[in-house]
């Protein structure tokens, strides 16, 4: 059997979950033996070059690009996993969800005391930048998600065990202790 | 106004740990807590205004704006809804010309929703200016509003007469009914207050008291079931210059009201239990923490305490025991379910937000003001008096091997005789249904309130006890005609959303996510996977710090487990995924705000 192919991405996240993947230390060598990476910040492949087995999603969706990438992942991956608080629940970025997006944009670009150089008084609207969504969405509200790996971030061993469980088709143990958020 | 705030502050020695009492008195005197009052409190107590505001904002019954000359808090528990709350709400809105959540323009009426006020056996009910109005009908509401327009006092509005027992007492004067349906050792009429303090305590050492309580094998009646004797022993051994006995009378679990009945009818028994606990652990101070909804019992309880002091059942050298000094004060809450959790209750009594503490250290080592503290349920302390009177051996003759003694049940919902039943542990759900006159077509029974279990008829043979269905005593019965998902599960889940203290992200967020999923299913947009997702995600709540968060998904989890078909009937079977997400719709606001030009 050929190696399972993995893709990863960070949407509206802090890259903390990716750091946690790297945190498996020397096991990363085992991981490379076990799997092949496709589109991922880890190997810096920008576009999918083939169909993948597992997609790991960090972060929720705060803009139109996140939606685009997430849908692309759904198309290219057999299994999608929401990794970490932001992907599952929206996380810190979702703090803005109680405030209308127009208000957020005005505060960030026009009214905030730290706004100094915005002489034209504009909210960024270049056609090349992603469009901000009305709120931050957890991934499963956009596409079908197959598994959820909790934590902020999920600990390295947890990500490792989840991957091994998926690849080897084994059930996975999520003990109470690993599910901690603060 | 500030002058009066100052006098309230002086009454409590400008002590920041008494902030709850200070705020309660200001709220009561002025109908709200103004920003001038906040500044004055902060200045006098030497804390920041934010410290004051964060406590105010935590509690439901503290407000920073006037709430109307007549402030109506209408219960929105499941049973209130079953008994016709919607009609009552509409009538209030129509008659006052005001919507719920608002104060009328002339400042006469303020209408607000509130979580279960402990009157499930006499719903629909409301608290109006601190007085409880039960069994409301649209006709009564019209009369009430008319009376309010005429400027009548709330006392005058209560024309139905007073409830049974001490509810008619001149210090209570409430229309609340006790509805005691079955008595056992705790509710037994044959009780001489103070008998254990006079006859037993002088002949026993504290260690012997603890040994007797241990011999009874009694466990905490709040629901968690920690052995009482062991708790006392831990506290006795803990080092501290001062020790405290807390009685937790913050019963906020929707559907529970047995503590209200004990506070009304057996307060002497309760206080005697606190004195016994104090003797056993070597405590000098006691605090009875009562939920705000029962504030109408304040004068009654205060007068009992005063009577006990006069009879040397409280105070110095209690019962003639040299050097045994102990007194009790009453601390009222201000509307927060989570304060029923013991460490949150302690935080609240210290004048702070009622957020549960991290444990360890447990309250028996570091509790109120960091001193060793025992927190016991009302019912536990009452039972202990009978244990001391008749012996642990006798107490063990009630109940089962693992669950000794009796339990007070608060029964409500679709049955003929809602009310309080004292039964031995070991009764099956089936036995209870027969006893309370439930209709034969019972669809489900909620045991233990929203944090408990929703049982289907196949499980009615299960028994109440720590070995099977551990419960704080709330039993709610649902007939065939009830929509369990919409009327029960959704209501319970919203209750947990409202009552989360917000400290742990899991409990702050996940119940909202689950509620949205449930709504998606109720709106016909759900798919089969949504049901399984809810089960999976609910596990995350285990990471919460306290029992409220850890059980917040129980309504959903136990209803999926026992009534999965009700969910499956409502989900779409033609697709395995439906997000309902619309990109164009969700970027509309951004496009408007930024003036972005969209090139197709």
Protein described:
- The complex is a heterodimer of chains A (182) and B (600).
- Chain A has 6 helices and 7 strands; from the N terminus they run βααβββαβααββα.
- Chain A has one domain: Rossmann fold (3-Layer(aba) Sandwich).
- In chain A, the strands form 2 sheets. Chain A has a 5-stranded parallel beta sheet, sandwiched between helices.
- Chain A has helices at 16-22, 27-34, 64-76, 85-89, 101-111, 156-168; strands spanning 5-10, 36-37, 52-58, 61-63, 77-83, 132-137, 147-149.
- The model of chain A has no long low-confidence stretch (mean pLDDT 91).
- Chain B has 600 residues and is α/β, with parallel strands linked by helices.
- Chain B folds into 5 domains: 2-58, no CATH class; 70-160, Glutaredoxin (3-Layer(aba) Sandwich), CATH 3.40.30; 182-396, Rossmann fold, CATH 3.40.50.11540; 406-482, Roll (Ubiquitin-like (UB roll)); 485-568, NADH-ubiquinone oxidoreductase 51kDa subunit, iron-sulphur binding domain (de novo design (two linked rop proteins)).
- Chain B is built from 26 helices and 15 strands.
- In chain B, strands 6-12-11-15-13-14 form a 6-stranded mixed beta sheet. In chain B, strands 2-3-1-4-5 form a 5-stranded mixed beta sheet, with helices on one face.
- In chain B, a hairpin with a 5-residue loop joins strand 2 (102-103) and strand 3 (109-114).
- Chain B is globular, with a radius of gyration of 25 Å.
- The termini of chain B are far apart.
- The mean pLDDT of chain B is 95.
- The A-B interface holds A 64, 67, 85, 88-90, 94, 100-102, 105-106, 122-125, 127, 131-135, 137-138, 140-144, 148, 150, 152, 174, 176, 179-182 and B 504-506, 509-510, 513, 529, 533, 536-537, 539-540, 542-543, 576-577, 579-581, 583, 585-597, 599.
């Amino acid at each position: 059997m050929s190696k399972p192919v993995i893709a990863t991405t960070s949407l509206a996240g802090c890259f903390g979950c990716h750091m946690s993947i790297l945190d498996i230390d020397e096991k990363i060598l085992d991981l490379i033996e076990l799997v092949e990476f496709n589109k991922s910040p880890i190997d810096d492949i920008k576009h999918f070059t083939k169909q993948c087995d597992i997609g790991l999603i960090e972060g929720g969706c705060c803009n139109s690009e996140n939606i685009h990438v997430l849908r692309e992942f759904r198309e290219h991956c057999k299994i999608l996993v929401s990794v970490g608080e932001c992907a599952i629940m929206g996380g810190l970025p979702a703090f803005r969800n109680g405030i209308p997006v127009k208000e957020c944009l005005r505060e960030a670009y026009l009214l905030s005391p730290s706004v100094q150089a915005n002489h034209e008084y504009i909210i960024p609207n270049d056609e090349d930048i992603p469009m901000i969504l009305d709120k931050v969405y957890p991934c499963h509200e956009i596409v079908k998600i197959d598994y959820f790996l909790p934590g902020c971030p999920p600990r390295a061993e947890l990500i490792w065990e989840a991957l091994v469980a998926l690849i080897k088709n084994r059930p996975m143990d999520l003990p109470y202790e690993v599910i901690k958020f603060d | 106004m500030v002058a009066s705030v100052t006098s309230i502050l002086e009454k409590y020695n400008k002590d920041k740990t008494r902030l709850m009492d200070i705020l309660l008195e200001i709220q009561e005197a002025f109908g709200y807590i103004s920003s001038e009052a906040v500044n004055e409190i902060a200045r006098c107590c030497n804390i920041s205004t934010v410290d004051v505001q964060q406590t105010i904002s935590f509690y439901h019954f503290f407000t920073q704006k006037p709430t109307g000359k007549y402030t109506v808090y209408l219960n929105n528990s499941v049973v209130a809804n079953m008994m016709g709350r919607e009609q009552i709400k509409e009538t209030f809105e129509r008659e006052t010309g005001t919507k719920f959540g608002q104060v009328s323009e002339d400042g006469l009426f303020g209408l607000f929703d509130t979580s279960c006020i402990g009157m499930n056996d006499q719903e629909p009910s409301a608290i109006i200016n601190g007085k409880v109005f039960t069994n409301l009908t649209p006709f009564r509401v019209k009369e009430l509003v008319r009376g309010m327009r005429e400027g009548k006092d709330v006392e005058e509005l209560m024309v139905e007469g007073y409830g049974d027992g001490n509810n008619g007492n001149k210090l209570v004067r409430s229309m609340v009914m006790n509805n005691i349906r079955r008595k056992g050792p705790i509710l037994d009429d044959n009780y001489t207050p103070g008998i254990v303090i006079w006859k037993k305590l002088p002949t026993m050492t504290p260690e012997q008291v603890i040994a007797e309580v241990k011999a009874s094998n009694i466990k905490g009646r709040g629901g968690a079931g920690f052995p009482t004797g062991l708790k006392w022993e831990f506290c006795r051994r803990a080092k501290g210059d001062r020790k405290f006995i807390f009685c937790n009378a913050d019963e906020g679990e929707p559907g529970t009201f047995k503590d209200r009945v004990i506070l009304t009818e057996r307060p002497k028994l309760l206080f005697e239990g606190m004195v016994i606990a104090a003797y056993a652990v070597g405590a000098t101070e006691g605090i009875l923490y009562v939920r705000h909804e029962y504030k109408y019992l304040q004068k009654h309880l205060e007068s009992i305490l005063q009577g006990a002091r006069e009879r040397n059942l409280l105070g110095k050298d209690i019962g003639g025991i040299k050097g045994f000094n102990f007194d009790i004060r009453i601390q009222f809450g201000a509307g927060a379910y989570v304060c029923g959790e013991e460490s949150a209750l302690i935080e609240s009594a210290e004048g702070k937000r009622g957020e549960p503490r991290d444990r360890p250290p447990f309250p028996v080592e570091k509790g109120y003001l960091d001193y060793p503290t025992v927190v016991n349920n009302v019912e536990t302390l009452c039972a202990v008096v009978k244990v001391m009177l008749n012996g642990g051996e006798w107490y063990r003759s009630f109940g089962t091997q693992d669950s000794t003694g009796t339990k007070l049940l608060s029964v409500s919902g679709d049955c003929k005789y809602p009310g309080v039943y004292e039964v031995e542990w070991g009764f099956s759900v089936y036995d209870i249904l027969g006893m309370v006159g439930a209709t034969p077509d019972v669809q489900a029974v909620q045991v233990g309130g929203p944090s408990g279990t929703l049982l289907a008829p196949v499980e009615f043979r299960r028994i109440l006890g720590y070995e099977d269905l551990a419960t704080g005593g709330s039993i709610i019965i649902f007939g065939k005609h009830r929509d369990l998902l919409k009327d029960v599960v959704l209501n319970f889940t919203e209750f947990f959303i409202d009552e989360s203290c917000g400290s742990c992200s899991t409990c702050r967020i996940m119940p909202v996510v689950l509620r949205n999923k449930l709504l998606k299913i109720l709106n016909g947009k759900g798919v089969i996977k949504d049901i399984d997702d809810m089960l999976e995600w609910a596990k995350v709540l285990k990471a919460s710090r306290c029992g409220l968060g850890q059980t917040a998904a129980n309504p959903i989890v136990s209803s999926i487990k026992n009534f999965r078909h009700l969910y499956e009937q409502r989900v779409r079977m033609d697709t395995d995924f439906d997000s309902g997400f619309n990109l164009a719709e969700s970027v509309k606001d951004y496009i408007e705000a930024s003036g972005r030009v969209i090139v197709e």
